[in-house]
Amino acid sequence: MQDSHTLCSTFSHPKLHFPSAHHDFPSLSRPRKLNSHVHFPSLSTKTITPIPSPPIPPKTTQTPSISPPPNSPHSEFQEKMLYLDSIGVDFFSLINDHPPIVSASLNDIKSTVDLITSLDFAAAEFRRIVSMCPEILTSRASDILPVFTFLLREAKVNGSDLKRVISRRPRLLVSAVKTRLRPTLYFLQSMGIAEVNKHTYLLSCSVEDKLIPRLQYFQKIGFSKREATAMFRRFPQLFNYSVKDNYERKLNYFVVGMGRDLKELKEFPQYFSFSLENRIKPRHQACVDKGVCFPLNVLLKTSEAQFHRRLDVCCNSSMPLTKSPLSPIKCRIDSM
């Protein structure tokens, strides 16, 4: 009770005068001058608990670092960019070609690069592989190792040829053994292609989406299933060519432009591997101009010099005897 009485008596100090309700407040633009004899009362420490002031931080002469924490995403992004740059891979071009590289783990990328380069790929060779199949950099080494095992043990690829196989078809490294590589291997073997290790570039192809439709195309144009299979067995590279851009264009010229019989293709399916504009048309036209008809293999497989030399032989000499070295040419001079 004494404390309350003291506090009330303090605020009723006779020398303190508060303005009445009708009194004008002094202007806020000018500071108020207090009389020197006016004293503000001090509050009792027993009634109001003082608020502790915040601790004063120690003085330091060092400028605080603004770099991201070592394990922050921003820091790993920078490390990833610098690492890929150090091995000659343009990170920003890679993002355009394969956006998932942004979220790929740096440790996984390093492990994959170490595994592939263990095959003694030069820097330029590795960059070429990545440009052909950027998905490699987002594949884990643990997923690529089974591909190596499959190629060596099941596809019978020699260890010394493994680098060449990967360099020719990098997509093998991102193909699942169980759902892609092994089914395709069994399909090719069922067709009678014994040495699949010479055609490993086909192993990453889909049987349903690519291989079977090409076989069916040749059946649609007049070949039996057995004949079509024999053609692909003789020349497995046929599986690699486009139906629209290769088969249709070259077959149309073969039948309409050259007037040849389809049965010739059974013996020489390699016809589809030659350039229509740069090899097939010019050589056929040269034979037409000379009135000569060569078998397909002689027409297309021989070098430019050999082709013109044989063309001259047929035009400037009599037909070779059966025992002549030129007899395999089977040259036929038309009566045009």
Topology:
Elements: H1 2-11, H2 73-86, H3 91-97, H4 106-117, H5 123-132, H6 141-153, H7 162-168, H8 177-190, H9 207-220, H10 225-234, H11 243-257, H12 263-267, H13 276-290, E1 292-293, H14 296-301, H15 304-316, E2 332-333
Antiparallel strand pairs: 1-2
- Provide mean pLDDT, rounded: 80
Instruction: Tell me the span between the first and last alpha carbons.
Output: 139 Å
Q: Please work out how many helical segments DSSP would assign.
A: 15
Q: What is the string of helix and strand elements?
A: HHHHHHHHHHHHHEHHE
Helix/sheet category: mainly alpha
Shape: elongated
**Stretches with pLDDT under 50, minimum 5 residues:** 1-48, 63-69, 320-330
Q: Could you give a short account of the major beta sheet?
A: 2 strands, antiparallel
Task: Note down, in words, how this protein is organized.
The protein has 336 residues and is mainly α. 49% of the residues lie in helices and 1% in strands. It is built from 15 helices and 2 strands. A two-stranded antiparallel sheet has the order 1-2. Helix 9 packs across helix 10. The radius of gyration is 43 Å and the shape is elongated. 17% of the residues are buried. The N terminus is likely disordered.
Name the descriptors.
mainly alpha, 336 residues, disordered N terminus, single chain
